[in-house]
Protein: Formate--tetrahydrofolate ligase
Amino acid sequence: VAVLTATVRGLKHHGVNAGALPCPPGRPVPKEYFSASKETMKWLEDGVQNAVHHVRTIKKAGINPVVCINSFHFDSEEEHAVIRRACEAEGARVAVSKHWQFGGEGALEFADAVMDACKEKNEFKFLYPNELPLRKRVELIAKEVYGADGVDFLPEANAKAERFEKDPKYNEYATMMVKTHLSLSADPTKKGCPKGWRLPVRDFLIYSGAKFICPVCGAISLMPGTSSDPAFRRVDVDVKTGKVIGLF
Structure:
């Protein structure tokens, strides 16, 4: 089973073809994202195709998909229905999870959906065999998973890939893509399901301990970080009651 988590606001953000307002990381979310107006419903209807794309990718692997709508108190049932309708049409189970508002009890529908999916037989399969050359792997991932038209290897990356392909010790190394999570493409500003683009690979990194070869795509930072005032600073446990505080 594979769980795909989606939020109404996140999918609205992918509704660029319907005119969704920009919402850069680290900036306040525009107030329009919190309403279910006729305009923002168009954003959602357009943006939900991003979730549909991921459901199709999961099914290519022969895995049973479960879509978890991570619900917030300002969501509407109409908005949830848009996501449910689109994803169920692709053969995915869909459940609304209100754990943000009600804790564990709010996630029971989601838990039941996962349990039901686990009872169904799956036909898991890898996207490619280990013997497939590195650059062909990357091209297959780019086209089948991200929807790219092809791959452009920068000269340095191409030289490294050629060297790795000639060395048999790397045949058993898995391929882990290093790419922005903000878009199916390597450009974080391209939302929804972009068409007519190619994946740029600028480097390959080797992690011999884990046996990973990592194609580095686009201008992505390799160091994770937090904001200047991360939320975890306000999360604690009340020692008298045992309850977590600061989450809401």
Summary: The CA atoms of residues 25 and 182 lie 9 Å apart.
